[in-house]
Amino acid sequence: MRLAIIEGDGIGREVIPAAVEVLDAFGLELEKVPLELGYARWERTGTAMSGEDIKTIKGCDAVLFGAITTVPDPNYKSVLLTIRKELDLYANVRPVKPLPGIKGVTGKNNFDFIIVRENTEGLYSGIEEIGHDLSWTKRVVTRKGSERIAEYACKLAKQRNNKLTIVHKSNVLKSDKLFLDVCRQVASSHGVEYSDMLVDSMAYSLMMRPEKYDVIVTTNIFGDILSDMCAALVGSLGLVPSANIGRKYAFFEPVHGSAPDIAGKGISNPLAAILCVKMLLEWMGNPGASVIDEAVADVLQNKIITPDLGGTSTTAEVGHAVAEYVKYALK
Question: Greater confidence, 101 or 146?
Fold first, then answer.
């Protein structure tokens, strides 16, 4: 298997080496392909990512990605959106699960759900026009896009508690009626128990009763907003991993940004990037992936944590501690 390693910008250059150390602890036969993409490269060369880079990525099976800085410059093309479209990574998967000893804004720790977001269309279609007096973006919802994200969500639901919640805004956005109808049809065909909620009601319910939910499927922008919001349940964006899944490729990234204000200080939290390694291993079908949960719980219990969690450990020290636990557990 070939794995593209893209540190990106800012703290991506710190958390990804920590995550790679954990990955290496599994002793797998992987060909790691390092690539430099992002704003720092764009500043230096005028190109954030080239066609040759895309070709190299397509020659890999998966990508482990750090963070990217996107600037409001019309000449700067989004690296993430380009990769998602080129690799047809149609499913964004965001697990929302508490970590031992860490409480989020609600103080609850009895939830464990997954947000599955359609990742290639909706308001992120890229079809837009910017004008002086009028700007618009075309919202695209297709039967194909709705069917395949519903299929993916139902597959996850069947592996868990067979419950699916479809999130939409079809009372106002009539294009969501297609998404809702297709998701209902797919869930019915798979024998998955389903319900649906309007996105605004869902946002409230997730904060008040997150334990009610198991697998949530929704459109692109709603999933983007809800999944970042739900990081508050866990305690921080720095603790939440994500996956972008396609039929052929997969792309794993922590959901925090490049955080230039703390970049280079060695204090960024690598746990989200390390949990991305767990998702990568699960995608690969590696049965030892769950040992990462044990390792993360161990470093949290022993207070080997970065300053954002009240500790004094560096990014590299946390990564090393998790890697050492994995090595010992797999002996």
Answer: 146
